[in-house]
Amino acid sequence: MHHRAITSRRTLLAASAATAAAAATGAVGPAPAHAAVLDRHLKGLISRMSLEEKVGQLFVMRVYGHSATAPDQADIDANLKEIGVRTAAELIARYHVGGIIYFSWAHNTRDPRQIAELSNGIQRAALGRPVPVPLLISIDQEHGIVARIGRPATLLPGAMALGASGSRSTARRAAHIAGGELAAMGIRQNYAPVADVNVNPANPVIGVRSFGADPGAVADLVAAQVRGYRRAGVAATSKHFPGHGDTAVDSHYGLPTISHTREQWQALDAPPFRAAIAAGVDSIMTAHIVVPALDPAEDPATLSRPILTGILRGQLGYDGVVVTDSLGMEGVRTKYGDDRVPVLALKAGCDQLLNPPDLAVAWNAVLRAVRGGELGEARIEESVLRVLRLKNRLGLLRDPYVSVPEVDRAVGTRAHLAAADRIAEETTTLLQNSGNLLPLSGHRQSDLLVVGADPASPSGTTGPPTATLATALTELGFAVRALPTGTAPTAARIEEAVAAAAGKDAVIVATYNVTATSPQRTLVSRLAATGIPVVTVAIRNPYDIARLTGQRAALATYSWTDVELRAAARVIAGRARPEGRLPVPVQRADDPARVLYPLGHGLSY
Predict the structure, then answer these.
(1) Is the pLDDT of residue 1 over 90?
(2) 325 counts as catalytic
(3) For the residues 346-352, what does the mean pLDDT come to?
(4) Rounded (10°) angle between helices 215-231 and 270-278
(5) How many helices and strands (H and E) does the chain possess?
(6) 3-state secondary structure of 24
(7) Which of 183, 227, 338, 511 has the fewest CB atoms within 10 Å, i.e. is most exposed?
(8) What is the spatial distance between Cα 299 and Cα 344, in angstroms, rounded to a whole number?
(9) How far is CA 140 from CA 5, 123, 486, in A?
(10) How far is CA 428 from the centre of its chain?
(11) CA distances from residue 41 to 2, 47, 64, 127, 532 in whole angstroms, order as listed
(12) pLDDT at residue 26, as a whole number
């Protein structure tokens, strides 16, 4: 059987060579004649798979460890506990999975060379199977606040920051840089860009992960990023269909409901997904949300045939890969058990089943559903074919390996880092500048205090935001003291900050998701009451300014990674001009029906 599989693979490589040019240029797909020939060979490959192998191709699973065959003992223990295997190689051999997702907390992403070696080890294990099919390795590398790979890889501004730039070419370049670095490390599917239109300032899970609140602008930037990733040889994944931008519940912990009418959905949520499809998006991720107007049964969209097959496949005409959001999230588990969720997802129209909490339960449930007649084997093969088409378009069926020595020349290059710095300047938004306080010049405002929030650091940060800002301002010629006060500063800490401000020329305050009851409000007002000029820097949501009083100037960076904080420091120092414009409106805190700063607001100097 192994000899026949290898012979078939050589035939398949010859057939797929005709599509290589299309894949390299980012074209939507091969010519119809080539597609028909390719499909015949892919179906031949599928016909040689056992049912277990076909089902396995639909699963994308986490696995602990920096190595496919020799992870650390702690990672072996975690794998045994959660998956029942010791290593990635054992996972592939036992469950025939079609993909693996990398996480930093699973110790998959220590550094670029290690990631490339892990990817190669995974592919060696995959090609050692009776029917040798490479894996599709994926990751959540949205940039901004969601990134699994940190330095020395290039970290770029996230979606809302790119929305503040308003530039399609900038968004496309960011995706091309990000995609090229991922591809060099063997990661060929990225769960980005986010296509949700964030119209709810209280959204706890999307927020700055969205490009903004205007459907047309979001659609343009989503399409630009899809093209950038495709040009880099990486499958883009627009998410979260049918649109997660107007939720007040985090689907990781509950099941949100969207109250949009069908007409509102068409006008607000659908445009970015339509644009992604027109741009040739390779995969679309589902949302664990209920939209009664689209499915009266009120099933999560991930499990809704009316939404996925009726609307996404039928109405929008999408025939690419549909991947679930993580099946370990509470939003998809509240109504059905873990044994029913993967079966219902396939019945709804999904192709890839992402990261189930218990792989054995999910994998065996799908096998039982096929053997018992609930799912036809033809339905499984339909999804396997879509997955194989994608693997072929990415060139994985020709050569799934990457060059480890080349990684250093492709990841975190000087040109990429310079581009990231320039993009961050384009996105930094100046919301307020009373009396033209900014820019601060070294000879006029030389002694500064930096205080404020220190949230958990995303990848791409070298320390707390206050320390990063202080370091960057020091390098620009200021005398700076950093005093982290936290996201919930105590009365004692606020008093310490007020005392430390004495004699300073200005105070920089990093704010983070300021609420009506946040003591960050007290911190800012107390500092302002000293008469010393206060500059606030909203390091996540730009809505903070609506709840703050007394500051003389206010910036929004949309994230607290080093690249954005360094850009903010350059803007404060006058070494760069703020070029960003709000991609979301900021409502008044005391009257949300009134707008404090409209969409498109942004000052410069």
Answers:
(1) no
(2) yes
(3) 98
(4) 30
(5) 23, 16
(6) helix
(7) 338
(8) 10
(9) 33, 20, 27
(10) 20
(11) 17, 10, 34, 18, 72
(12) 47
Reported as type and span, the H/E element at residue 172 is helix 168-184
Taking a C-beta distance cutoff of 8 angstroms, is the pair 210, 145 a contact? no
Residue 399 has pLDDT above 50, yes or no: yes
Q: What percent of the chain has pLDDT over 90?
A: 88
Distance of CA 495 to CAs 208, 500, 522, 527, Å? Answer: 31, 9, 10, 9
Strand-strand pairing, 429-433 and 447-452: unpaired
Q: Which helix (H) or strand (E) holds 101?
A: strand 99-102
Look at the block and give the residue holding tokens 């020091």. 474
Provide CB contacts within 8 A for 528, sequence distance 6+: 534, 549, 550, 551, 552
Query: Cβ distance 318 to 274 under 8 Å?
Result: no
What single DSSP character describes residue 130? S
Q: Measured between alpha carbons, how far is 492 from 507 in angstroms, rounded to an integer?
A: 18
- SS3 of 35, please? helix
CA nearest neighbour of 225 among 142, 312, 292: 142
pTM over 0.70: yes
- What is the pLDDT, as a whole number, of residue 36? 87
Which pLDDT band, with edges at 50, 70 and 90, does 502 fall under? very high
Q: Is 1 exposed, middle or buried (0-12, 13-18, 19+ CB in 10 A)?
A: exposed
Angstrom CA distances, 450 to 1, 298, 400, stand at 67, 48, 48
Select which of 34, 252, 358, 421 is catalytic: 252
DSSP 8-class letter at 535: E
d(CA 604, CA 46): 58
Distances (CA, A) of 429 to 41, 68, 176, 581, 603: 52, 44, 24, 6, 7
The answer to whether residue 540 scores a pLDDT higher than 60 is yes
- CA dihedral for 268, 271, 274, 276, sign (positive or negative): negative
Predicted pLDDT of residue 441: 74
- Cβ–Cβ < 8 Å for 120, 137: no
Most confident of 13-27, 117-131, 455-469: 117-131
Q: Which residue bears the tokens 């602990």?
A: 64
The pairing of beta strand 353-354 with beta strand 429-433: unpaired
Bridging pattern class, strands 506-511 and 447-452 = parallel
Tokens read off for 179: 């995609």
Among residues 196, 299, 325, 454, the one annotated as catalytic is: 325
Q: Which of 225, 218, 283 is nearest to 245 (CA)?
A: 218
Task: Please provide the DSSP assignment of 276-293 as one string.
Answer: HHHTT-SEEEE---B-TT
Q: Which pairing describes strands 235-241 and 99-102: parallel, antiparallel, or unpaired?
A: unpaired
Residue 44 Ramachandran class (φ > 0 left, ψ -120 to 50 alpha, else beta): alpha
pLDDT surpasses 80 at 14: no
C-alpha–C-alpha distance, residues 301 and 297, integer Å: 10
Decide if pLDDT at 19 tops 70: no
Name residue 306's beta-bridge partners.
Answer: none
Assign 534 to helix, strand or coil. strand
The tens digit of pLDDT for each residue in 447-461 reads 999 999 988 776 667
